[in-house]
Amino acid sequence: MLRAPLDSRAINANLAQYWRVSVVELTASTQSDLIELVTQGRAQAGDVIVADFQSSGRGRLTRTFEAPPGSALLFSFYIKPSRDSSDWGWIPLIAGVSVAQTLSEVNARVKWPNDILINEKKISGLIAQIADDGIVIGIGINVGMQVNELPILQATSLAIEGSLRISRNELLTNLLATFEKNFTQWDQGSDEIWAVYAGMSATLGQSVEVHYPDGKVHGGTAVSISASGELILADGVHVLAADIIHLR
């Protein structure tokens, strides 16, 4: 069931009118495809592209995302927030929370900023990029992967975790509905998502190492999230773009 074919008709039939999902069998990157449509003026808020296979999937900090055909849920969607752009740093965190809530059956948690973990193993990641006057969010979830198909050793999948009763079609429908609820409340001025994120965070309260893109490393205890989505350490340092390693 986890590797059942993607079905655009089944997906769209169970979604609110806000979303319009297009299924493609093969693409280099749903993220690149959707950003191109946005910049050409050919995309609207609520457009979604989901692929059975990506040849050049993208993750945070210029990383790639690879998955055998049919083994992962790989999609990107476009939104146009009403809130001031200074608050947009929370949008990737809202997306991460939405993934974790959708995967609550396997006790998923959010590692700052938006990796999704099960017992410290990564099951999902996402990327968010500004495009025109909105944001394109790309999400990858390891669904039907077996151990020998995992992209990294410290990864897992729904199949490995024993969650076998859901298809990628249902998973996408549930996730988009959850994100829409969280995003709409936030976009209308509510900050309740802060407490939700804190409650699902695998990072807050942890001793961490911060690995910056320039090679610098800083240690500390993660204590909070700022209004713009930054990770705040106990010594007052605000972390915007970096890798976080949980220390045990």
TrEMBL record:
InterPro entries with a match to the protein in the record: aa-tRNA-synth_II/BPL/LPL (IPR045864), Biotin_CoA_COase_ligase (IPR004408), BPL_C (IPR003142), BPL_LPL_catalytic (IPR004143)
Record bears the keyword Ligase: yes
Entry protein name: Unannotated protein
Domain BPL/LPL catalytic span(s) in chain numbering: 10-187
Cellular component aspect of the GO annotation: cytoplasm
UniProt keywords, alphabetically: Ligase
CDD domains: BPL
GO molecular function annotations of the record: biotin--[biotin carboxyl-carrier protein] ligase activity
Species, as recorded: freshwater metagenome
Record bears the keyword Ligase: yes
